[in-house]
Hints:
The chain contains five helices and nine strands. By secondary structure, the chain is of the alpha/beta class. The chain has a single domain (4-127), classed as Response regulator (Rossmann fold), CATH 3.40.50.2300.
Amino acid sequence: MQPLRLLLIEDSEDDAILLLRTLKKFGYEFAHQRVETPEGTRTALDGSQWDVIVSDYVIPGFGGLEALKIVKERHLDIPFIIVSGQIGEDSAVSAMKAGAHDYVMKDNLARLGPAIGRELQEADVRRARRQAQEALAESEQRFRQLAENIDVAFIMSDWVPGEGLGNVMVRRG
């Protein structure tokens, strides 16, 4: 199993250690980088690919919402989970509306492992959906080009089992 690539936006080394220990208890193997500034976040996002981002909500001069904004500016679809000891319900709702995928209170880190697992699965679903939509659009474009450039009659129909041809479309070049 490939280790989880974790970007940790956290100013407290003690909190970072606690968070990483919690993830190990859930069986996660990971490679991680800890940053605590907007510049560090930008450099980390530009320099590596990440599976999940866990960010403290309050960092002096910086914070979870600003970090989330940096991720959104880069159009990255990476699970973003806010961890905080100080977030209130209104702030949590604001963070979710801004695009955070979940939030976990520092006094309830037992939720972090399941939250990461769920968000990684959701990211896989979003990625598969995006790939299917792109493949469909590409197929439709190829079909459109074929139909527009054909010089002879082009017949397309549905085959209905037991009945034969269904809807028939004829296009002449």
